Amino acid sequence: MGPWLNDASSLADEIRAGRVSAAEAVEASLEAIGRSQLNAVIHVAEDGARAIAADIDRRVAAGEDPGPFTGVPVLIKDVEAVAGMPQTHGSIAYRDNVADHDSTSTARLRAAGAVILGKSAMSEFGLVAYTSTRLYGTTCNPWNLERTPGGSSGGASAAVAGGLVPIASGGDGGGSIRIPAAYTGLVGMKGTFGRIPRGPRARNGPLTGHLGPLARSVRDVARWYDVTSGYHPRDPFSLPRTDGWERGLGTHDLRALRVTIAPDLGCAVLEPDVRRVVEAAAERLVAVTGMQRVDARVRIPENATRWATAGAPSLFADLKGKWPDCADDLTYEIRAAMQFMDQYRVWHAASVDRFRMEMNEAMADVFEQTDIVLCATNPFEPYAAEGPMPSRVGEERVGRNNNGALTIPGNITGCPAISLPAGLSSNGLPVGLQAYADRHRDALLLDLALAWERAAPWPLTAPGAPV
Would 276 be classed as within a structural domain? Predict the structure, then answer.
């Protein structure tokens, strides 16, 4: 068989029913990765994956149910720990780093029957919206190999949209699940802060990091939440477990919701083509769900500069003891950020605290007026695979801070947000529609996504996948 091109849930169901074997699914993914031009995978554990698949097939034959992701080949983002596999953060400075334990979410995926196939590429330390590093080279978008699949979870999005694996893990500290999902035509959700626990050995950092999947379907996201979410004592910010994410799909009355369409959130400059696709998708989604449209005032403050300032101490901690000797090994953006550390002062830290307050107040104002905000995920269509991030819209200079302006608000405030395939640009490239809700209303976003999936089904993989 070739690699599985439907969603992960359907593959797990087929393996549990004995109609497909885990060994076949794993072998097909390994072969596709070996042939791929995407440069999406930075490490493959072939022998280990084959052994796990064989054990799963034995258990299925014996009448056991290994779990919701039985036999599904899964890639884990480089930043997450997988015992015995590299954890390099996409950086030459960490090229020899090998994890000695599984992250909490990886352990939960294993327990649910998933086959951890290897690690996916990411941008260096996850700080830019494309995936090209000095350590691993450039990751390509399966819709167009000259364009980026986004970042920082670009390897995950390229692998799933490119037909290599049916689902992969991502991390979202400023849009790093939603941005690549939008650029590759996938579903990408970051839940309320703490929904999926980090750790063990979780560092608090700027309190913006979220975990979640890059997926082909809404039910895959819900199933991932069923498996990976819920309190863990090694993450002090993890939320109590909520059951029934997949079982509860489609149970909310969306007609009772107020919705506001604000493509640019009042803080970003969109390419005209992106605005056109997003506005059309948002209008259609409102029509098919019957939500009540309201014109809430949406004025989100400029955020990318202070988001980067918030993350500066964590980057310093990552490279402490290596800087400045590692300077020539770093990508431009990381080197520039480290050079900024000489000017970092206590007032920078104080400004971040004030920024959090301002952002929280702005989002609270919005959700006093409406339940759902629909906007673009990215201001741009996918740009050059090797970067840099765009700084112009047409002739207008907008600066590189424009790139994360639509996603960072969800990270600073911890509000849940989901990116859905909105359609294609005039260049035939995916554009993402993003929906925000207030904290702890994650299930509403999944039901909204399900309604859109039924009304406007999207291709589960890029044309011609696997690439």
Answer: yes
